[in-house]
Structures are given as C-alpha cells and as structure tokens.
Design goal:
It is built from three helices and 25 strands. By secondary structure, the chain is mainly beta. It has a domain of 52 residues. A hairpin with a 5-residue loop joins strand 7 and strand 8. The termini are far apart.
Length: 576
C-alpha cells in the first residue's frame, strides 16, 4: 500500500485519462465547448458562455451589448420587445381543441361548405355540364374602338348596378351554407290557407249578382235579377301516414221577382218562388295499414232540388221541394307489385220534402224516398309509368219507402254498370282517365222497360302551353223519374273547357257543354247546349273579381217544352 502522495498522483492520473475523450471531442468540435445558459426570462437560451443574472445581456442596453459583440435581442422579430408589456388576454375568447373542418381533405364533406379544388376525372369519365341560365356564363368581352384601334375591355363586375345585400342575406358569411333558390309558385294568386294543428284550412265565399232572362226555364220567358252566396271550406291533413280531406261547398240563389201565373189560369210548370239552396260535401279518410294495404272511407251529403224545366217538377208549386242524399262508403286498396285491387260497400239514403202548393195545401213525396245498397270493385295494372288500364264493376239495389208510386208503378229496382278504361300521364302534358262501358237497371214492375245504355266517363286535362289548358269531362247517369210508364232517364253530358292566362292576374275561361236526356219508356228526348265565358281578375291572393256571360238552350221533341235563357253575372271572391 503506497504512501499518501503516491496515491494522490494515481488519482490525478486516472482523472486525466477519463477527460482525454472529452478533450478530443472539444478539439474536433469547438462549438460544443461553448456552454449554454438560460436567460432570466427562462424562455430562450443565450449563446456565449456563463452570464450572471445581474449582468444578463437582456438587461444591458443595446450599446453595451453591441460593444461586447453580443446580438441585440430586440432586433430579432421572433422575440418579444422587452421594453413593452405583453398583450393582455383579458376579453379575448379562448380557443380549445381543433377548429371546425380541420381534418377535411380536398374532397368529401366539409361542415363549413368551403369551395373545393377542381375535381380530377378519370379517362373516359363524364364531366358535369355547366349550369344553364342567366348568370351562369361570364359576360362577353367588350371591344371598344380607341383612336382607330381595338382595345379589349374587362367585363363589367357582377355587382355593377346592383344594390348590395347584407352578408347574412348574400350568404357570404364564413361557414354559412349557400342559400337555396325558392321554389316557383305554380299559382301566385292562389289561396294560402292557415294551419290548425296538422290540418291545412282554406276558406272562401263568392258573392255574385246578375240577371237571368228565364230563371224558371218556361216556354214563355220571365226574367228576374238574382244574387248568389256560395261559401266553400277545405281541410287537408298534413301527415306522413294516413290522410283526411274535407271538401264542403254550398250556395243559395235568390231571385228578386216571383214568377207570374199564366194568363189563362193554368198552373205554372215552375214554382212562383224559384229561390233555392244547394250543398255538396264529402269527407274522405285513408288508413295506411301497411305500405301496400290501405283502408278507405267516405261520408257524403247532397242537398238540392229538381232542375228548372224538368218534367219531375209538379205544377202549381209555391217553391221547389228540397231533397237530401246522405251516404257512406267503406273500402280498401291492396297493391300486389304493379297490380292494384280496390273494393268497397256503399249505402245511400234519399229523402224528399213535402211539396207546398200555391193554394196552401201540401202533397207528399214519400214515394220518391228510397235507400240504395251497393258495392263496387276495381282492378288496375300499371303497364308502364304513366299508363294504368283498369276494369270496374258496380251493382246496387234501390228499395223505396212506398212499394207503389203516385201513378201505381212499383219503382224498386236492381242495376249497375261495367266499364273498362285507363288512367294515364304523358309527360305531364296530357293527364286524366277515360272509360267506356254499359249501364243497366231492371225494375220490379214488368210494365217498366229496362233502363240501359252506353256509358262514357272521362276527365282529361291537356296543358297545351304554359298559359293555355284544355279540359274535357264526360259522365253518364241513370236518374229516377215520376213520369208514368217511364223507367228512368239516361243522362249523358260532355263538357269542353279552355283556360288561358293573359297575365298571371287575368284569366279567361271558355266552356261548351252538350247533353242528352233519353226518357226510356217515353217518347220524350231532350238535348241541352250551354256556351259560357268567364273573365277573372285576380287582385291579390285574397280577392278575385269575376264576370260571367252564359247562354243555355233546351231542345225537346215535346211541343212547348223547349226553352232558352241568357245569364249575366258579376261577382267577387274572397278567400284565405
């Protein structure tokens, strides 16, 4: 064991040998020998060796640091100015997390709806066509002539001659979706209606006044001024499933003059007071059991009188007797892919008031009261979109309150019809339904012949131009009568109508109607004609003004039964 001085020399030699690698690295890389110290602000290191806190370069003035060869920290734009306080964060909104749409790529969904880079298309891939319409293409360049030379001028700005819009309305706020173009209103003067819960309600009333040259449709005309009050009400449900629709329409026609009795003392073939009300309403319901199965129901009410000039009108009446028909239908609709099957059961009840005569007496009309029970079925198949042929069959039985009528005939009967047709929609220019068939009714009384004939029904709408629409309607009915020995009346009507909009607020309507009345079992046969023209001025959505001019003819093979009439009417319609 060595002495003390020897052991000290050995320790110093070991320390020197341990420092040899560090000295070698220092010789190779002199920059590593420079020590790094932290500034008093503890934010950025200062190169140049040890600096005491009291003598920090950041605390010296700029001339002192320049004399020592130290850089001026205030000249570095990345360093805050030590002479100015840091900006206050009071009142600023802190930001947390990542900003919106931070991870959105050049394609795909962007919550801020920002413009994307131009899409790249593969070879052979179809490119979208540019939009068509005003403003979709840049305006052409204008080439003015200046000193005999042509100079291309830049196109005018899109904002030229336009009133600036607020950013929120213009859709230029960052992150705001582009505003969608409003849908064009097909009827800018139509009623808007109001919502009551989930039902859309629309109401209207028409007030009209005019003059009729022959309101009683007499062989010897007697004219009278008149007025009409016609209210309407419509309620439509706004549900995703199921539906309810209520459509109620009524009217009252009042005449200023009563008809005068015949000079020879014979009773008139029309009432003295020819004022009469009318009502036609129905409520339809649909219950969606499943996607292909639906249950349907309808309740209906009709209040009316016999038509003026009809042979069913008694002679010597004070006023027209009213009759009402209350009915209901319960049915179903079932779809089997393109095949649709529909069916239903119907019941209707018709009641007549007693007739009041001019002498103050009353007569019964109970022999005209009856109940009708029936059923209807329909099968249709969609051959192609817009073309759906169908076949329909209907049968019913009528049971009168009195087995024999006033003339001793048994009026109970069984009847119905069979028809085939199609509904179609061709490019939305021609839509509707048309069918032909055969209608027939057999009476219990063998003295009454069978009531039968060709049946035609149609409802066609042809949109000839955006301003002109042509319509055609056809219908066939088997009507009861009180004439002795006459089974009934086979009534066919055909109506042609043309609507033209001269302006959005000015519409003209021309209408022509033709009808035949075949009194089977009787020699009487009538033909009816009607020509009318309407002009509608739509002041706004709530008020319309309407003028009507109509001419009616009835030609009969029975002497003295032919009539004609001219009607002039002006009215206003108030709707909501």
């Amino acid at each position: 064991m060595g002495s003390g001085p020897a052991r000290g020399r050995n320790r110093r030699g070991s320390s020197f040998r341990a420092l040899l690698p560090c000295l070698a690295l220092t010789a190779l890389f002199p920059a590593l020998a420079e020590a790094q110290t932290l500034t008093p602000d503890m934010l950025r290191p200062v190169r140049g060796g040890f600096v005491s806190p009291d003598d920090s370069p950041l605390r010296r003035t700029a001339p002192d640091r320049a004399g020592e060869g130290l850089p001026d920290p205030s000249a570095d734009p990345r360093l805050p100015n030590a002479d100015k306080p840091a900006p206050s964060r009071i009142g600023q909104i802190p930001k947390y997390g990542l900003p919106a749409a931070n991870g959105a790529s050049d394609s795909g969904y962007d919550s801020l709806n920002r413009k994307r880079q131009k899409s790249k298309y593969y070879p052979g891939q179809a490119k979208p066509k540019p939009p068509v319409g005003p403003g979709s293409q840049p305006p052409p360049l204008v080439a003015p002539v200046v000193s005999g030379r042509v100079r291309i001028a830049p196109p005018p700005s899109d904002k030229a001659n336009k009133t600036p819009l607020p950013p929120a309305m213009a859709g230029t706020v960052a992150g705001q979706p582009v505003r969608k173009r409003l849908k064009v209103d097909d009827d800018p003067f139509g009623a808007v209606g109001d919502y009551a819960g989930s039902f859309l309600l629309k109401g209207a009333v028409e007030l009209s006044a005019g003059y009729d040259t022959n309101p009683g449709r007499l062989g010897v005309p007697q004219g009278s001024p008149f007025y009409v009050i016609a209210p309407e009400f419509l309620a439509v449900s706004d549900w995703e499933r199921h539906a309810v629709v209520a459509d109620l329409r009524g009217s009252f026609t009042g005449y200023g003059n009563n008809l005068m009795p015949n000079a020879d003392g014979t009773p008139l073939s029309a009432p003295i007071d020819i004022s009469r009300p009318a009502f036609n309403g129905h409520i339809d319901g649909r219950l969606d059991v499943s996607r292909d199965t639906r249950l349907t129901a309808q309740g209906r009410l009709l209040v009316a009188t016999d038509n003026p000039g009809s042979p069913n009108v008694q002679a010597g009446l004070e006023r027209y007797p009213l009759y009402s028909t209350v009915g209901a239908t319960f049915g179903f609709d079932q779809n089997f892919n393109r095949l649709q099957v529909s069916g239903g059961a119907t019941v209707d009840r018709t009641d007549y008031q007693w007739s009041k005569l001019t002498d103050g007496t009353k007569t019964s009309n109970d022999d005209r009261n009856f109940t009708q029970y029936g059923g209807i079925g329909r099968v249709s198949y969609e051959v192609m979109p817009g073309l759906k042929p169908f076949g329909e069959v209907q049968g019913d039985s009528r049971v009168h309150d009195l087995y024999l009528d006033r003339n001793g005939y048994a009026r109970n009967s069984n009847g119905g019809y069979v028809k085939a047709g199609t509904s179609f929609e061709f490019s939305r220019l021609l839509t509707g339904e048309i069918a032909v068939g055969w209608a027939e009714r057999t009476y219990v009384d063998a003295r009454l012949p069978k009531l039968q004939g060709l049946l035609t029904t149609a409802s066609l709408v042809w949109t000839a131009t955006p301003l002109t629409t042509a319509k055609y309607f056809s219908d066939t009915q088997l009507v009861e009568t009180t004439l002795p020995g006459t089974a009934g009346i086979l009534v066919r009507t055909h109506t042609f109508e043309v609507d033209h909009d001269f302006r959005r607020w000015l519409t003209g309507i021309g209408k022509f109607s033709y009808g035949t009345l075949d009194y089977q079992g009787n020699i009487r046969k009538d033909q009816t004609y009607s020509v009318s023209g309407d002009l509608i001025y739509k002041m706004n959505r709530n008020i319309w003004v309407k003028g009507t001019l109509r001419r009616d003819w009835l030609e009969s093979n029975v002497p003295g039964a032919s009539t004609n009439s001219t009607v002039v009417m002006l009215g206003v319609r108030v709707q909501n």
